[in-house]
Amino acid sequence: MVPQEAHIDEPRATLSMHPKKFALWLFIVSIIMLFAALTSAYIVKQADGNWLTFQLPRTFILSTIIIALSSGTMHLVYLAAKKDELKRVNIMLAATVVLGLMFLASQYWSWRELVANNVYFVSNYVSGSFIYIFTGLHGLHIVSGIIFLLITLGSALRLKVHAKNLALIEMCMTYWHFLGGLWLYLYLFLMFNS
Amino acid sequence: MASTVLDEHVDHITEDHAHEHNESFITKYIFSQDHKTIAKQFLITGIFWALIGGFMSLVFRMQLGFPDTQLEWLRPLLGKWLTTEGKLDPEFYLALVTMHGTIMVFFVLTAGLSGTFSNFLIPLQIGARDMASGFMNMLSYWFFFTSSVIMFFSLFIETGPASGGWVIYPPLSALPQAMSGSGLGMTLWLISMALFIVSTLLGGINYITTIINMRTRGMSFAKMPLTIWSFFLTAIIGLLSFPVLLAAALLLIFDRSFGTSFFLSDIYIAGEALPNIGGSPILFQHLFWFLGHPEVYIVLLPALGITSEVISTNSRKPIFGYKAMILSMVGITVLSFVVWAHHMFVSGMNPFLGSVFMLLTLIIAVPSAVKVFNYLTTLWKGNIIFTPAMLFSIGLVSFFISGGLTGLFVGNSAIDIQLHDTYFIVAHFHLVMGSAAFFGLMAGVYHWFPKMFGRMMDAKLGYLHFWVSFVGIYMVFFPMHYIGIAGFPRRYYSFTNFDAFSSFTDLNAFVTIAAIATFFAQFVFLFNFFYSMFRGKRAPANPWRSNTLEWTTPRVPKHGNWPGEIPTVYRWPYDYSKPGAKEDFIPQNVPLSETPESNLPAEAAKVAVEKVNEDK
C-alpha cells in the first residue's frame, strides 16, 4: 500500500450518476418536449374551430393492452437478469420484441379503421391529420425501442447481460416503459380532447 | 481504499497511452472523438460559415446603400441572380437575407459558439478526461457537417435557397408556387435544419451529462466557473426548445410535401383557390417562437459566460456577485420560455395576452441588468489588463447595454406595433444578440487560443481587429435605429421607391461603407488566427495568470488532458488579488492549507477544524 498523502481539507467527490443512463433520461426529456409541442399545437388548433370530432378507433384499446403486456414482459426480463436466469432473459426479451411488433400491427389496423371511418391524413380537418402524426411518430419511436431491444437481446445472447452487468437492461427497460407511458398519455389525451 | 483508487488511476494512464498509439491521421483529425479536436472542427466550420454569412450581408447592403451601382463584377459568382442591368435580382435579395439570418443564428452563433467552447472548455474546466460520450460528440459534429453541406449545396441550386426569411413563416414557405425559394431550396433548408437539430441535441445531452456527472473531486456546483454554468444552462435551453422546432418543421414538411393543412387555410394564389382549409399559420408562429426566443439565449448565454471569465481574470479581481450571476442566468433561462409571443404582438393576438407577455418580457430586464452591473462592478477599480480578449469582452458589455436598452422599447406591445419588422428591430437584435455574441466568440478565441494551439495570437493585430470591429459595428447598427423609427420595414429590396425615405439615402450609404470596413477587419483576425497557429509565439503554461483548471494541463494537452492525476479542486475559480496572498491569483487546485497567509477567517476556521479532527 502506498501511503496516502492526505490534505487536511481534502474535498469530497462530486455527485455523479451512470453517465449513459443519465444521457438516456435527457433523451427522454427531448422526446417529451417533442410530444408536448405537438399536443399543445393540437389544443391551440382545437380552440381555433373548424374541428371534426370522430370516434377514436376501437383498436386503440387492443394496442394499449398489448403495450401494457410488453411492459410486463420487459419487467420480467429485468427480474430474471437480476437473478441470473439467463435463459428466461432471452425468452422474455424475445417476447417483448414480438409484443412490440404486435403493437405496431395493431396501430396499423387502427389506421385502417380510421380510413374506413373517412378520417384521412390528408384532409381539411386537422384533427384527423393530428391522430396520424401522433401515432406515426410514436410508432417511429417504438421502432427505435425495438432496435434497442434487439441490441440488448444480442448482448444477452453473448452472455453480456447478468446480475453484475444490469446497466444495458435497465436502460432498455427505462426506454421501453417510457414509450408505453407515452402511448398511454397520447391515448388519454385524445380521449379527453376529441 | 487508497490502493484501489491508485490502481484505477494507473488503468486510466495505460488506457490513455493505448489510445495514442492507435491514432492515425483519420482518427486524430477527421473522425476524432477527442473533445479538443471536435471543438476545433466546430470553430473552423463556424469561421467558414461566418465568412459566407458576412459576405452575403455585404451584397445586400450594396443594394440598400448604393441601389444604382453596377454589380457586374459579381457575375461569375451570382450568374443569373443579377439582372441584365447588373443589379441584384429582387428574389435573390430575399434569399440572401434569409440565408444570412439562418447561417448567422444557427451555424455560426449556435454551432460555432456553443459547439466550440462547450466542447473545448467543459472537460478542461471541470477536470474530466473527455466528454461523457466521445462517440456521441463525434456524431454531433458530423451531423452538423452534413447539415452544413446540405445548406451550402442549397445556395447553388437553380431555384435558389430558401427565401421566406429565417423564420420561414407559412404559407410563404409552405407553397412552392409562392416564390422560387419555397421550392427545392426550402426542402433542403428543412432537411438541413432537421439534421442540425439532431446535432444540437446530441451535443446538448453530452454537455449536461458531462457537467453533472464527471466533475473532478471538489468541483461542486458552487465552485464551477461561470463559463461552465452558462454552457450548462445553454444546453438545457437547447434540449427543451429544439424538439419544438423539430415538431414545427415536421408539420411544415407534411404541409409542403404530403398535402396536409396544419398551417394552411383559405389561400388564393395567382387567382386560383387552394384546396387547403382548416389550418392556422399563427400556430406555426407559436411553435417557431417557442424555440426562436430561447434560441436568442442559446446564442447569448455562452458569450456572457466567456465574458465573466475573461473580465474577472483581466481585472485581477473576483467576479462581483458570483451567486447573483448564476441566479440571473437561471432566471434568464426560465424566463426565456415564457416570452415567445412578444414576437407576435401584431399577429392579431388577444391584447390581454399581449400585456401578459409584455410584462414577462420586461422582467427579463432584471436579470440582464444584474449581469451588466456585475460586469461593471468587477471592472471597477480592478488592475485591468487590456488583452484583446478583454477588449472584446468589454465591447460585449457595451453592445449588451445599448442593444438591451432598445429591448425595453420593443418589448412594449404598444410601441412594438409601430416598430415591428422595421430596421429598429434589426438594429436591436444585431447589437444585443448578434454583435454581443460575436464579440463573446472572439473574446473566447483570443483568450483560449494558447490552450487550443499552444501559441499566442498577435496582440497588436488583435487591437486593430477590435477597434475597427467595435467602431464599425456601432456605425452600422446605430443609424438603423433612425431608419427604423421613420418606419422603414426590414427585408425590403429598395429604399428608393418611397419618397418618405429618400432623406435616408446618405445614411444608408454610410451604413454600407461601415459594413464593408467591418467585414474586411475580420481578415486581420483570419490572418492572425492562421498565422499564429503555426508561427505564433510559444505560449507559456498560464499566459493570463488564470485560476481555472485548463491552465494546469500541459501546453498542448494530449488525449486525456492531464498526463498524471486529474487535479483536485479546493476553492472557487475567482481568487484574484486575494489580500495577503503572495501572487495576485490562486489556482483552483491549490489547497486552503497551503495559503494560510490569505485565508479568510471562515476558511482558516475550516482548516483548523479539520486539523483537530485529524489529530484525533
Architecture overview:
The complex is a heterodimer of chains A (194) and B (616). Chain A is mostly helical. Chain A contains 5 helices and no strands. The longest helix of chain A has 32 residues, at 126-157. Chain A is flat. Chain B has 2 domains: 1-30; 31-552, Cytochrome C Oxidase, Chain A (Up-down Bundle), CATH 1.20.210. Chain B has helices spanning 2-22, 25-30, 35-65, 75-78, 90-126, 134-154, 184-213, 226-257, 281-315, 322-335, 351-363, 365-379, 388-410, 413-419, 423-453, 459-485, 505-535, 601-615, and strands at residues 268-269, 272-273. In chain B, α3 (35-65) runs antiparallel to α5 (90-126), α6 (134-154) packs antiparallel against α7 and α13 runs antiparallel to α15. The longest helix of chain B has 37 residues, at 90-126. Chain B is globular, with a radius of gyration of 25 Å. Residues 1-20 of chain B have low confidence and may be disordered. Chains A and B meet through α1 and α4 of A and α1, α7, α8, α9 and α18 of B.
Unreliable residue runs of chain A: 1-8
User: Which architecture name of chain A does CATH use?
Assistant: Up-down Bundle
- The shape of chain B is globular
Number of strands of chain A: 0
What is the CA-atom radius of gyration of chain B, in angstroms? 25 Å
Strand order of the largest sheet of chain B: 1-2
Largest sheet features of chain A: none
Beta-strand segment tally of chain B:
2
Number of separate helices of chain A: 5
Backbone shape of chain A: flat
The top level CATH class name of chain A: Mainly Alpha
Give the rounded overall mean pLDDT of chain B.
92
Please sum up the structure shown.
Chain A has 194 residues and is mostly helical. Chain A has helices at residues 19-47, 59-82, 86-116, 126-157, 167-192. Chain B is 64% helix and 1% strand.
